[in-house]
Amino acid sequence: MTVLPAFRAPRAHRMTSAALAMATALLATPAQAQDMSAPQSGGLEEIVVTAQRREENLQNVPIAVTAITADALESGGIGGTTSLPQAVPSVQLTRSGPSGIFFVRGVGNTSGGTGEEGANAIYVDGVYLPDLGQTVFRFNNIERIEVLKGPQGTLFGRNASGGLINVITREPGRDVVVKGQVGIANYESYSGQLYAASPLTDTLSADIALTGTRQVDGWGRNLATGRKVGFGWHWGARSKAVWRPNDRTKIMVSGEYGKSDDDFASIFHVAEGSVGTGGTQFPGDYNTNTSAYQRVRQRIYGFNLTAEFDLDWATLTSITGFRGNKTRSGLDPDGAQLPLARYAIHSETDSFQEEIRLSSNDTEPLSWQTGLFFLRNKAALVNQQQRGTAFGGVDAGSDLSASMRTQSYAAFAEATYAVTPSTHVTAGLRYTRDDRTLRGEQTPVGLVPGTPLFIGQSLAPRTDSLTYGKFTYRLAIRQDLSNDINVYASYNRGFKSGLWALQSPANPPVDPQFIDAYEVGLKTEWFDRRLRLNLSAYHYDISDYQVRAAVTLGAQPTLLNAASVDVDGIEAEFEAAPIGGLRLFGSATLMRSKFADFPFAPFTYPRPAACTPAGPEAGQITGAATGGNLTCLGSAKGNDTPLAPRFAANIGASYTLEFDNSREVKFSALYSYNDGYYFEVDNRLRQEAFGVINGSIEYRPSARWGVELWVRNLTDARFHVQKLGSALGDLAVPAPPRAYGLNAKFEF
């Protein structure tokens, strides 16, 4: 297994050899672990996933999938998507104001502007979320979350070039369910959750899920104004109705609405060890020192209709979805009391989507699916007001408005055939066509006569359009070695669509990003399903990798294409139930994601600095830091891609101690470790290694009532959700500090 110590961009055949060596070692273990029948009492439950758009045993899917049940989310302290990297080490998250930007196996894009869809798709109940501002949400009605690793370019398709996060919510049935909790925590935090489901008639059931939190005290203060920072509130409601008029038909209607007001991802301050413009220094981990108010107010809503019809020979499924998001943000990204730059942003997105899918009811020897997908999306930067001396005067600047309309059409098909009872081959093909239209205008406001305009500060009304038509495809083979062990190999091609950065409508669009992914894997269950161990190894070739560009003073963020990226990695996951009441689980990923070629990459240097285009480096620092950064262009070949740790892992446990009269005590703990990563392509701003410990103790005097003590980030680890090297200086946004509290739970 030479790939581990050397780890210098091994090619696909080396990854294959490594995985096969693992498989050989495992197959050499005692024979009693094979030929599993039904598990004994206390063994692991079978996990059913929909990774291939039909219900299947997780172990039979030739894809690297992490499936997290509602109980596992709760016991691990994973209360929302922002905590998902603690449960899945191959997933990383950065924030940009209201946007949640996910990376899977190093594939992602740090840009989170209006109109960005991300390189990794997120679905909720089969509905695609076409806006990064909708990807940050909390859980209280989740059945499970599936994280599909690698391109999902056939059955899902839409921008699933690095992976996919599939959220499946609970479905009301024939039983009456009422459960919830109220809680109190540090920082004067109050929370409540309620889930209620009931049959309404013999054929109709409905549920409602309510959740809300309010944090009154802040993590820190704005040293300039004395106001608290790091606080806010949110509430949300989601309801689903299921109608089963007969055994062949199921109609599901669901809707959701949520509001939030916080500054959790917009507490910009000068990064520690850096000097901001005007000599501003680091104000403390959770403090800021800005002259303007920084806050994000958001309203998200959605509606979807899913209809399933059993036709005997196949099942016809129709999924119709509407999604909307309205956001108002106030930002002061200079990190200083100086009136350099402040932003007031009003953005909106609205989308409609329809998918029609036909899938075979028979699965042996042949199973197949085919379908059509349509998406219409409008992302609008309704108005972005930018003011400050960086734009020509204290109250000078410009008003920017821009919109991007997208119409996407796709047709897809995938089939799996059992060549022999133990050998299954899968092939899939998808064609996607995207039509995009841009409209943008930027008008100067209050400029001092004679002040030169900065780049992007003035733009006459502009209209442009582009069209992309691309094929993506998949080929996989799964070989069953026994009832409990199989190996698989796959090749996938995916792409992320080209688009404009709406904050820079004068710039040309970024080209589509393509990925060719090679993967081998081993899935096993041992000791009468008391141990589940899965391994995978992969190699990616990515071309035209989309990255956010650093900018000059006063200009807006834009997008660039890196020439190529290579990604190599190995992953392992396990889950065990060695004795009754005890569950152990963990996973680890070892990865190297680097730019194979990027000749004109943006590098930032703390001022005073000078660009050196003829030298080996893009630029050089010429004196003691005075504040701000200079951007130069150079080669990033060999640099790590952003948000791509070399090593990340977690390990967790839950133990339930049962007494008489339905009394029980449950202990849960989760430790996640990350050895660090870079935030930008120049590899200058780094998040150092950190670990997070979550834990809880729950006592239930009866099956209906319980009380829980919990803690998140027990050791108060200090890390960041974002670091940004801009012309105004190195800026950072902190991750949450330690939190602890008490929940009272009820269930009927």
From TrEMBL:
All copies of domain TonB-dependent receptor plug, residue ranges: 58-163
SUPFAM superfamilies listed in its UniProt record: Porins
Keywords: Cell outer membrane, Ion transport, Iron, Iron transport, Membrane, Receptor, Signal, TonB box, Transmembrane, Transmembrane beta strand, Transport
Location of this chain's protein in the cell: Cell outer membrane
InterPro entries: Beta-barrel_TonB, Beta-barrel_TonB_sf, Plug_dom, TonB-dep_rcpt-like, TonB_rcpt_CS
CDD domains in the record: ligand_gated_channel
Homology family: Belongs to the TonB-dependent receptor family.
Phylogenetic lineage: Bacteria, Pseudomonadati, Pseudomonadota, Alphaproteobacteria, Sphingomonadales
Signal peptide: 1-33
Name this polypeptide is given: Iron complex outermembrane receptor protein
Domain of life of the native organism: Bacteria
TonB-dependent receptor-like beta-barrel domain location: 245-714
Membrane topology, from the record: Multi-pass membrane protein
Ranges spanned by the short sequence motif TonB C-terminal box, renumbered to the chain: 731-748
